[in-house]
Amino acid sequence: MVKIADTEHMDDSARSAAAPADPVGQAGEGPHQEPTAAGSGVAMVPADMHIVEHDSDEQIDDKLRRQGVRLGRGGVAPAVFWPALAVIVVVAAVAILMPEATATVFGGVQDWIVASLGWYYVLLIGSFVAFVLFIGFSRLGTVKLGRDDEEPEFGLLSWFSMLFAAGMGIGLVFYGVGEPLIYATVAPKPGWEGDQADLAGLAMAQVFVHWGLHPWAIYAVIGLALAYAIHRRGRPVSIRWALEPLLGDRVKGWAGDLIDILAIFGTVFGIATSLGLGVQQISAGMQAIGIVDEADLSLLVILIVVITFLATLSVVSGIGAGIKWLSNINLSLAGLLMISMLLLGPTLFLLENFVESLGVYLGNVLHMTFDIGAFRGDEGHAWFADWTIFYWGWWISWAPFVGVFIARISRGRTVREFIAGVLLVPSLVGFVWFSVLGGSGLHRQLFGQGDLVEDGAVAVDGALFRLLADLPLGGVFSVMAIVLVAIFFITSSDSGSLVVDMLASGGHPNPPTWSRVLWSAVEGTVAIALLVAGGLGSLQAASLATALPFSVILLLMCIATLRGLRHEVRKNDRARRAERLSQAAIHISGEIFETMPEHPKLRSYLDDRIDYRISRSLGSLRPRVSWRRRRTPKLR
């Protein structure tokens, strides 16, 4: 009987049919490895080199070294850890010792980036949105981020909740009330025209652009590349492996070290920016409820020191006891705060604001995506520097941190499920959040007391507390908001320290505690340094500057991911064709034997094939068979 099984060109599921003992989709050694050239960057890692849940630290170290990771003393990758730490410490020290000179440098860098490369950031973000939508709607979306038979690690509701957690942050609380109000009143985007209602609708739409699909397209790019490398191919959690389909074995050398160093730069300065914004809002809240008389720089530094200390305690307690319960608390507080403002505030107006703002957003999103203010002169450049370009740089700086998180929780999802969940769920949450908090601010300013704009400016850090003060139990809600920002501060520093430490430790899932504490302290120090060297302007400039080199890494990730997913689709196509051919051959040969006359010698003649198996080549030790026994039977 005929049997066709081209196992060298089958994918994992097809191999399991030919060899049932091999787990579906599990990469192994020998014949189970992918038929790709060494160093091609798309071959799966042998199963005995995969890091699994119950591995000890010693076993993990051994597996990392076998995959090409160079670990040194203390459990860190010296070629990544020490250069990244040295540069960051030097920048922080210079900013603290020479704040005015540092502020001047940061300002010059920001002005140059906006004037010369603003178009690049805008085009880049639009390209990321187009890229992830193309991947999601194409055949590449069918590839699973894991073994072919693997079920998702988390249920759909739990997965959505964790994506929501990743989408929430200090920035949503800091800008929730003030940003739409600024766009609609004191600083509309140059070129907007219309009455107050038109400006309010455009303001909400612009906020949706800054906090919706566009930032999450950035996170989807890096998260998808990492999830494919980690869950599909078995690589460690490190940014360098996302580019292996493009760079091959070069990611194990200096090129990979540089990639991880840039990722650490972006993460540290991105988190420092968030921490700087967070303490500004905490101090404003303390001033609003009468705890302090004035929120000066000394108070900001003290707050950063105290909350960084609390974040360090969370680091020492471990991921399970620290980050997990803090994340649950801040999600609960954020949800309670938003629902309370919805129900106790102008509920009907807020619901109408959400629906109308969504319509304005959908009608203008394409124009707003590529609007760079080319015909608005210096006024347009200044507005984009303060808002859109700053946001794009900030999100790119945050990309390694958020990308690692969403990649780790997405095992077992298809690429299409991953993109749909990452783009839609956090974006929708952000839309609802800003519709409630931003809508409450707009309603108060346009139809209520009108006291949120004073002397032609909006106090962004204090606007939320002025709204909460007029709600029933306003003092309680104000304290809740302060606690919420503080917990966001702690979880951002804690989680960011873990991600940075993993990158600096070669992708070790349980990096050394001492280095995690060190990175937590470094993030707090950088936040202090940036505040001393110019406050919000230096925070914005630092995000833009660190995002620029990493944006090139993100572009290369798109190419690498496309190459890897195309390889997976071609491999699956070959396996399906081989399986169909095998089934057809089995069916045809079965039909022949079923219709063949029941003559034993005829059947023996047709199926008396020469056995060419290796095991039959026994040399001089093989048993001799009489020539009479080997004769082909004659037909009668």
**Spatial strand sequence of the major β-sheet:** 1-2
What is the 3D shape?
Answer: globular
Please count the helical segments: 23
Distance between the termini: 23 Å
Binned, the helix content reads: 55-70%
| Contiguous uncertain segments of 5+ residues | 1-39
> Element order, helices and strands?
HHHHHHHHHHHHHHHHHEEHHHHHH
Most strands sheet: 2 strands, antiparallel
Strands, total number: 2
User: What is the residue-averaged pLDDT?
Assistant: 84
Radius of gyration: 30 Å
The structure class reads mainly alpha
Q: In what range is the share of β-strand residues?
A: under 5%
Topology:
Elements: H1 12-18, H2 57-66, H3 78-97, H4 99-137, H5 156-167, H6 170-175, H7 178-184, H8 196-211, H9 213-232, H10 244-247, H11 254-288, H12 297-317, H13 323-344, H14 347-370, H15 377-386, H16 388-408, H17 415-447, E1 453-454, E2 457-458, H18 460-469, H19 474-504, H20 513-532, H21 536-595, H22 600-606, H23 627-630
Antiparallel strand pairs: 1-2
Helix pairs in contact: 1-21, 3-4, 3-11, 3-20, 4-9, 4-15, 4-16, 4-17, 4-21, 5-17, 7-8, 7-17, 8-9, 8-14, 8-17, 9-16, 9-17, 9-21, 11-12, 11-16, 11-18, 11-19, 11-20, 11-21, 12-19, 12-20, 13-19, 14-17, 15-16, 16-19, 16-21, 18-19, 19-20
